[in-house]
Design a protein that fits this description.
128 residues; alpha/beta
Length: 128
């Protein structure tokens, strides 16, 4: 069994695609019309055939409630791994990304959390 696709709910797919590609540096993998929405995925340029992140519309009322609740509780919707968290933090700050947690040492890693502008908090991790 493999994880091929995972998702984050977003409040606007076009805005999310712009943020995840132009700011975070992911690459669009799939963009297929699905009625008024899209099957819209991005991947890491380092792993173009790796796990895809589905930018899933939060139009389902349950999705909206879930997304809002974990955001208000400061719970990241997902986590990405980086090789140099200080470098990534500085780069993203320069691009205007708002962090809710600066790089912080925790057991086994250093983490930081930012707002993806689409309704989610995202955690980045650097393993020790």
């Amino acid at each position: 069994m493999k994880i091929k696709v995972t998702s984050v709910f977003v409040d606007n797919q076009a805005k999310a695609l712009k943020f995840y590609t132009e700011v975070l540096g992911f690459v669009k993998k799939n963009d297929v019309s699905a009625g008024e929405y899209r099957w819209l995925t991005v991947v890491s340029p380092e792993q173009p055939d790796g796990t895809e992140l589905l930018l899933e519309p939060n139009e389902n009322p349950a999705a909206k409630i879930y997304q809002k609740a974990i955001f208000e509780q400061n719970i990241p919707a997902t986590a990405f791994f980086v090789d140099d968290i200080e470098k990534e933090y500085k780069k993203l700050k320069e691009l205007g990304v708002t962090f809710t947690m600066e790089p912080t040492k925790v057991t086994g890693s250093t983490i930081a959390v930012f707002n993806d502008t689409c309704g989610n908090l995202i955690q980045i991790n650097q393993l020790d």
